[in-house]
Design goal:
Elements: E1 2-9, E2 12-24, E3 36-38, H1 41-45, E4 50-57, H2 70-83, E5 90-91, E6 98-100, E7 106-113, H3 117-123, H4 149-152, E8 159-165, E9 171-178, H5 184-201, E10 217-218, E11 239-245, H6 247-262, H7 274-293, E12 303-309, E13 322-323, E14 327-332, H8 338-351, H9 358-365, H10 370-378, E15 380-385, E16 403-406, E17 414-419, E18 426-432, H11 434-440, H12 444-447
Helix pairs in contact: 2-5, 7-8, 7-11
Length: 451
């Protein structure tokens, strides 16, 4: 067994131990005409980082031991990778422009945790999630040994999985996927597909992979090399904290915002969405914190860049199971008043409806200097919504998860929104500088609408 490290958690020693490590290859070879998957212009421009997502399952007694789940998981992962063939390939370590779909496989690790699942969830902080990932592979960080030749092979391994066993028989399935080849929607679609395949593999019957409408769709792009390693996340220290906003309180806030807009002259806000009102509330709180902390400097309130899934917004719509990076930023620069901010948000979203198809859209991006894109990226609060992705429906045959979330410290001044369990609200991961986060955590208006 390989010791990852001894961590001090919950005021006592917690041992996290890797108990197995291997490569899982696709069950069938990738056809020769699919051996090269060209990255789109947006893929190449994105940060060279990994998306860390972890799902927690309690012990439901279906298996005598959580370790009995591993064989079906490995078999189903092998079958699923046949459909998601770029995930089993390799990327260049610097400025990748394509994926070599060579079937070299994904990493699969097992680890044991000397804690019960309930104990961990009750007492853990957001940073405690990082230990569940292969090599600590969270965003831009990794503790993979430089001499780990059998796993390094040629290039970057896009997909790594770690199954973590708790003392009680519960498990945490953690997945790190290269952002160069897929966005959050793609990652969740992969997890749901893998889970569904696992249910078949767990039954004592022959399971044959047959094409269906829900299979992943990889779009062909002509080869283009930007010779660019991706946008930089920056190196400023930050802290990530989770805030939970129940639906009842969000609806109260929506009514409050609507009433505020109706008191003003001009067009009132009609039907503000949960994401729209929370974006304004969090942005307002973050700007107030920064203004307080940097009142003696030249601080100017930054705008908002809201990452938006464009699959269903183009005139020639993409299937929701299109795998890749298919999101664009809505830039919101307006007054801090809610009616102005939310109206501008709605107006900017409508602009995507006029884009014809994905090739035209990405061709337009090619004309924007990368330096300008980085400047806008650095000078904005970044919001991403994963609401509606059905993350709590990912069932490997053990029942639905009790927690599903993104791990790691995000880019400074960034926010990720996700559905709460049973869709009873929205969980928001807030990543800010420590001083700013301290102020936000004491914002009475913000706290009035969250648990």
């Amino acid at each position: 067994m390989t010791m990852i490290g001894n961590l001090i958690r919950f005021g006592r020693r917690q041992l996290h131990t890797i108990i197995s490590k291997e490569i899982i290859k696709p069950s069938s070879p990738t056809p020769s005409h699919l051996k090269t998957h060209n990255l789109s212009l947006l893929d190449q421009a994105l940060v060279n980082t990994f998306q860390p997502f972890v799902i927690f399952y309690p012990n439901t007694g279906i298996y005598p031991s959580s370790h009995d789940k591993i064989t079906p998981l490995k078999k189903s992962l092998s079958e699923t990778l046949t459909k998601y063939y770029p995930f089993a390939g390799r990327l260049a370590k610097v400025a990748p422009s394509f994926v070599d779909c060579n079937d070299q496989g994904a990493e699969f690790l097992e680890a044991s945790i000397d804690s019960t699942l309930s104990d961990f969830l009750k007492r853990s902080q957001h940073g405690d999630l990082d230990q569940f990932f292969p090599h600590g592979l969270v965003n831009q960080r990794s503790n993979r040994p430089d001499d780990d030749d059998d796993l390094q092979s040629n290039g970057v391994i896009p997909l790594a999985v770690q199954v973590n066993h708790f003392e009680c028989g519960g498990v945490a399935v953690a997945v790190s996927l290269s952002h160069k080849i897929a966005d959050g929607s793609s990652l969740i679609h992969f997890l749901k597909d893998w889970a569904k395949t696992t249910q078949f593999c767990s039954r004592e019957q022959k399971h044959e992979l047959l094409p269906n409408d829900d299979d992943p769709k990889f779009i062909h792009f002509e080869y283009t090399n930007l010779n660019f390693n991706g946008l930089s996340l920056g190196s400023d220290e930050c802290v990530t904290k989770s805030f939970m906003f129940p639906n009842a309180k969000i609806n109260d806030f929506k009514l409050k915002v609507k009433a505020m807009s109706e008191d003003k002259s001009g067009q009132p806000i009609t039907n503000p969405t949960r994401v729209e009102v929370l974006t304004w509330l969090l942005y307002k709180s973050a700007v107030a914190a920064a203004t307080k902390n940097y009142s003696g400097s030249d601080f100017k309130p930054m705008g908002v860049s809201h990452q938006t899934n464009i699959r269903g917004r183009l005139m020639e719509q993409l299937p929701e199971n299109s795998i890749g990076n298919f999101h664009l930023a809505i830039d919101i620069l307006s007054e801090m008043k809610p009616e102005s901010f939310i109206s501008e948000f709605k107006k900017q979203k409508l602009k995507f409806d006029g884009l014809s198809d994905i090739h035209t859209t990405f061709g337009y991006l090619f004309g924007i200097p990368l330096e300008e894109t980085q400047r806008k990226f650095d000078g904005a609060y970044i919001f991403t919504s994963m609401c509606g992705y059905s993350t709590y429906e990912i069932d490997f045959g053990w029942g639905k998860p009790i927690k599903a979330t993104v791990a790691g410290d995000l880019r400074k001044n960034s926010f990720i929104m996700m559905d709460a369990p049973n869709r009873d609200g929205i969980e928001v991961l807030v990543c800010l500088g420590k001083q700013d986060l301290d102020v936000v955590q004491s914002d009475h208006e913000l706290l009035a609408f969250c648990n």
